[in-house]
Write a structure and sequence with these properties.
Isochorismatase-like_hydrls (chains A, B, C, D); 8 strands; homotetramer; six-stranded parallel beta sheet; Rossmann fold; alpha/beta; hydrolase (chains A, B, C, D); about 220 residues; Isochorismatase-like domain-containing protein (chains A, B, C, D); Isochorismatase-like_dom (chains A, B, C, D)
Chain lengths: ~220, ~220, ~220, ~220
């Protein structure tokens, strides 16, 4: 089975990671594939344009996941419309720090506001999918009920796709690891700030947190 | 005030980050500076040799922090001696994944076992310091009482030093950010797996999580 | 100031509990005042008929709270419509245990299902109020983001009203206490399973967790 | 099988609660059986004298539990010696509220201080038992790593014995329930503030949280 270790392909015996590979106890977690990151518009409040490339491939992967009877969980940031979670409370750090890198973000104040178009999903979300819609900062796990949900469903392995490999995806992989889930990050279905940080984040995952794989390889591996 | 943004120095106005800079509500969090990472011996169970270089500088920085009346919190991994937290339960991912990168880690089974010499502090820990001694995986926050402690003491800013910039330090910075602490990571007082991942982790902090600073600069800034 | 200690009125000096009484850092938390508990209908899925008596008094109290510029937080149980949080996962204990006491609960399976009429608020919820709508079991705090919200808003005292004094209210008071909020439960604005358990739960609050007060007395006390 | 529902014995079919009764996924949690509650001395910092009666019976029960190869977890309050968790931070509510009921508690400031004799176990703690020694307030679960431990060991049912039925035991039963553990409280091996609150707390458990049983009955039931 091919995994990626520190940005290099590596053939490993499937048995070495057998506990990562049981479809019956696996869920796919798709992070922040919403209009507020992905819309191609100057007023996109928190642009992650590189992730647009993976919208169609993620949809295709999820279809295969559902066809196997496995759950897809969509997680996204939504903030209370009055600003209590952020601008009118303790503001999220990225508002000032990311702006040091990319310059002012014109419409950042509209980011993730409940009820706004910016919270609409861009990827396909079907009725049987599970949704977690109160991510408030970077992690899919805190302060949401994702862990409660996964645990209640007997999930032991989480497979991540979606947005900002070096931010929300990496953070969620850390959290999943700390909660003793087996972690897989899909190299072809995540996108980071840029190539450099994306690659570095995947290297960190591969060293400390779990497996970095291509989605096609994982599908083959699940077939057994 | 000089900060580092994506590995480059940047001069910013102190007022831009005034809420990060109040010594009265700041604690320094020192991560995993224990013998199990730092001892120069072939049976060191989880070697992080690069962090040996910062033992003396961290001690010197902590002395100045204490002299200002500010708290130093030492956090370290300790696992129940019977293995219930790890080897005899759901084993930590790094045992298999990090070994893909560095090869077999001969004495890894002894890592962090309660009561063993591997849990001894290498940096100076004084009676007035605070200690969190049940980190079980990578984060200083989960499943420990660090948040309970900081909150009870009215802490709003956390300053990180210590070990594995791209692992436990980065994970703890993510968690601190999600709990709405203001985050500062000290570039000269943390060490990562290697130069590349260390630099990338600091870049991620600087973009998404908070400030990357040199310790000397922070001391000057605190002086006001 | 009059408080209730183990079901008896007691006059105490306001200064003894001064840290409980600052309106500027206080929020009112109203628990589970929804149709699924309160509707007077044979298919009410989880009947708490005694709490119907406090709907109007709670609304009146909240109006005064808002008039002071203080926040009202409405928390309620909502379960994913597919049953993943409960019936199709690990079912909530009360389904079998409460039925030992009251007999079969005919429509219990419909309890709290997202999108159903059973989740509609019965008390007045205004746009400026805060809502927490993913309570999954008994506590208002886990696995919701209530603590994240309160903390972000600098809240230090929580005042509880609403339903099942000896269940969700008591559980939430325990959790608030463990997170070091100052706790006040409003004796006239909560209702329990029956008089006996309601009184016992208030006695427990008064001994271990915080203040039991009448809402009129609290309003007077806030006036200072 | 005999359970207690709202203080009355009830015969129920074992199959109704089959998921509560698998010894292979059950742990016994013993709460706060330490000298600071149990010592018969005027300077006992937080007296719970009624619980002295269950020391020997708890020890006897634990011996049978261990003989079955099942884990016993001892949880107790320990506070950092400098007072950061309590008196020199946000003080625990009970210090003022419980004193309204029983009058001044002379040596309360010494309660649970790390390194003091008050934290010594009174019940038998064997090397193979698991220990959780950083309970800070009332719950055995927060901010400790009890959930991390139980989950890592595949535990699904928790059986409680120990001290203050209407306080730490009840709070821990609520938390266990919210985390979807199956909960059993042993009626003969817990003690509350007084008969009235003890009985009421057990009634609450029996209605909302799980099973109230006698320890002898549970042992018989486990035999199958």
């Amino acid at each position: 089975m091919k995994i990626w270790v520190y940005d290099q392909p590596r053939e490993v015996a499937r048995e070495t990671f057998a506990d990562y590979l049981d479809p019956a106890t696996t869920a796919v977690i798709s992070i922040d594939m919403h209009r507020g990151h992905l819309e191609d518009s100057p007023d996109c409040p928190c642009p992650a344009p590189r992730a647009r490339d993976v919208v169609a491939p993620i949809d295709a992967f999820h279809r295969q996941v559902r066809a196997r009877g496995m759950p897809v969980v969509h997680v996204k940031s939504v903030l209370r419309p009055g600003g209590e979670d952020d601008l009118r409370g303790i503001p999220a750090a990225w508002r000032r720090t990311f702006a040091q890198h990319v310059g002012p973000i014109p419409n950042a104040d509209a980011h993730a506001l409940e009820g706004s178009r910016w919270t609409e999903w861009v990827t396909e979300v079907l009725p049987q999918d599970w949704r977690v819609e109160n991510k408030r900062r970077l992690s899919a796990f805190y302060p949401t009920d994702l862990d409660f949900l996964l645990r209640n469903q007997g999930i032991r392995t989480v497979v991540f796709d979606g947005g900002f490999t070096d931010c929300c995806v990496l953070n969620s992989a850390f959290d999943a690891n700390n909660h003793n889930y087996r972690v897989i990050v899909l190299r072809d279905l995540v996108r980071g700030t840029d190539d450099h940080l994306e690659s570095a984040a995947l290297s960190m995952v591969s060293l400390h947190l779990g497996l970095v794989m291509d989605s096609a390889e994982l599908l083959v591996t699940w077939r057994g």
